[in-house]
């Protein structure tokens, strides 16, 4: 007889087409129409698409040119990230009315651990329903939810009844749910891995469950193999972390016209460094590893990194290091996007100090 790990009550809340839904909420003329946030019919990439646009195959990360080809009636709007962040904060405040164990994954989704909650409600299903209703009543947007014993299953379940729905996978249903689940719906199994699994005769959770740990580690590596072996058995011990630590801070810019010479890239790079400095100083963050992101006109991408012996956050040092990386090797093609990110941050050091103090005292 199989036994599950000790159950927690985890909710995964996922906003429905968040960026596009905010735009439709703020502009009634856009409601019910195919909408793309970001990009345009000439260049750029779609950041988000409304459900009306998704029916035509328009998705995030699709080029604006293709999106317009798929959906000639598509309306493009510029993203307003400050507005999305404002709405996201309001949604998050609703979460905190129920639990302090909230782990945001992005502006539009988060995990909540409601095993013990501020409302004293033993039903995670009813809590999720109440949260979704409050988001609709107080903000005007719809959300979907997944509810189960761990983060993995809750994440998968939240996608089941989208949009504006929820699904609960009770402890007694976990094994049957996972065994019947198509392998392409397993969170963490991307398109390439799905194809590899198909080649190995793995099409469902039950097929995955039939494979030994040794088999999975041989074909997918120790870390991934162990992950697949456990999650299909309902084992995923990652706790909801309310104090998630920033591991990387970035800024980037897509050009109106492709740039073909490094000389013309220096000034934009300087501006990007200034934007990054503002973000770093706002949150009092510094880091050691500077990464230059380059996206070429054919949409291929390259990164170049350099780790310094000291923490930096100053725009001059950010630019100097990124500019050095710019000339590190010749460009493969004309460039449509440049970005600078900083990781290996001092936030990780601060966390280690806090943990050490807890052990000492």
Would you mind describing this structure in some detail?
With about 350 residues, this protein is an alpha+beta fold. Among the domains are: about 60 residues, 3-Layer(aba) Sandwich (MutS, DNA mismatch repair protein, domain I); about 60 residues, DNA polymerase, domain 1 (Orthogonal Bundle), CATH 1.10.150; about 100 residues, 2-Layer Sandwich (Dna Ligase, domain 1). About 40% of the residues lie in helices and about 20% in strands. The chain contains 14 helices and twelve strands. Strands 5-6-1-7-8 form a five-stranded mixed β-sheet. Strands 9-12-10-11 form a four-stranded antiparallel β-sheet. It has a three-stranded mixed β-sheet with strand order 3-2-4. The radius of gyration is 23 Å and the shape is globular. Belongs to the DNA polymerase type-Y family. Its cofactor is Mg(2+). Its main location: cytoplasm.
